[in-house]
Amino acid sequence: MLQLAIHINVYTTIVSRYLVLSFVLSVFISGCTVMPPVKPPPVDLTKVKIQQLLSSADAAMQQNRLTTPADDNAFDRYKLVLTLNPSNTLAIAGINRIVERYLAWALDYADRSNLKKARYFVSLAEGIDPGHPNIKPVVNKINDQEDKVVSVFQLDATSVRDQSVDPTRFATIAARIQRHRAFITIRAPDDRSGRWLYQELNRQVDFRIEARFEISSNPSVSLTL
Known about the structure:
The protein has nine helices and four strands, in the order ααααααβααβαββ. It has helices at 2-31, 45-62, 74-84, 89-111, 115-128, 135-148, 157-161, 167-180, 191-202, and strands at 149-154, 183-188, 211-215, 220-224. Strand 2, helix 9 and strand 3 (211-215) form a beta-alpha-beta unit. 63% of the residues lie in helices and 10% in strands. It has two domains: 47-147, Alpha Horseshoe (Serine Threonine Protein Phosphatase 5, Tetratricopeptide repeat); 155-224, no CATH class. By secondary structure, it is of the alpha+beta class.
C-alpha cells in the first residue's frame, strides 16, 4: 500500500507540473501572436476640400479677383467654405478683407475727387456685408468730399496739349481760386501739360496754389474748399 501511495503522489506531481507548463506555454504563445496591422484613420474629405478652397480663395485675393470673374473669385470660394463649415474663421476673415479692400479703394477715389467711382466700390462692399461697421464712415467721407467740390472746369484736350487754352478761361478759373483760396486738382493728358496748366493758373493769383496732378485724357481743373 505504501508503494502504491508513493506512485500515486509521483504521478500527481508529474501531472501538476505538466498542467503548469502547458499553461505557461499557452500564455507565452498567445503573447507572441502577431496582431493585425492597425488601419489608418479615414481621410476627412470635407477638411481637404475646405483647405483647397481656402488656398484658392487666398490666391484670388492676391490677384484682386475679389468678386469677379463670376467663375473664379475669392468671395464665391469663401462662401463655399462656409457652406461646408459655417463657423470657419478663415473664410469669415477672408470675406471681411474683401469688404475692407473695396472700402479702401472707395476712399482712394474719394481723395482724388472721383466720387462716382468711390460710390461704386462702396456699393460692392454693401453687396457683401451691408452691416459692416466701416461702410458708414466711408460714405460720410465721400459725402464730405462731395460737399467740398466747388467747381469743375472742363478743358479742351487739344488746346491743353498744344498749350493754347483761351486766356479768358484761365482768368475765370483763377478768379474762383483767388476767391476761395481753393485747393485744385489738375487733370491733364501728361506731366508736361499738367505743369503748364499749373504755371498759368499760379501766376494769376497772389498766393501759391496747392494742387494735385492726375493723368487723364479728359483735362480739367477741379476746385475744392
